[in-house]
Amino acid sequence: MSGAPTLKPTDFDDYLERFVSLVGEIEEGQYGSYKNRLVLKMSRAQFEERYQKYLTLGLKYADMLTKSDTIEDTLAVDLKSAEVELLIQSSLFLPFPKF
């Protein structure tokens, strides 16, 4: 897909800024509360792994929309769950891909 989102070097720094703003200042490996859920303050490696999974899941979702395939409800639920974990406030994929 042309213009598809990818993991950028600045994504982790952006995540840390969102974490402080939305959850507060806590140590890496500790949990805080966001949208009535516990969220882990991830290390760079944890974040990059989880963010890459989010992008892969989102691109699969976008591909299914493009092909007019049936979308499983669990796919959208998994995307929303990942967005909460990653503190993403403006979805790249839901309800429709933004690229």
List the helices and strands and how they pair.
Blueprint: H1 11-22, E1 31-34, E2 37-40, H2 44-66, H3 73-85
Antiparallel strand pairs: 1-2
Helix pairs in contact: 2-3
Q: Report helical residue fraction.
A: 40-55%
SSE class: mainly alpha
Number of helices: 3
Radius of gyration: 14 Å
Query: How many strands, what sense, and barrel or not for the largest sheet?
Result: 2 strands, antiparallel
Would you give an account of this structure?
By secondary structure, the chain is mostly helical. It has one domain. Strands 1-2 form a two-stranded antiparallel sheet. Helix 2 packs antiparallel against helix 3. The protein is globular and about 45 Å long.
Features:
99 residues; two-stranded antiparallel ribbon
Short description:
The chain is built from three helices and two strands; from the N terminus they run H-E-E-H-H. The protein is mainly alpha-helical and 99 residues long. Strands 1-2 form a two-stranded antiparallel sheet.
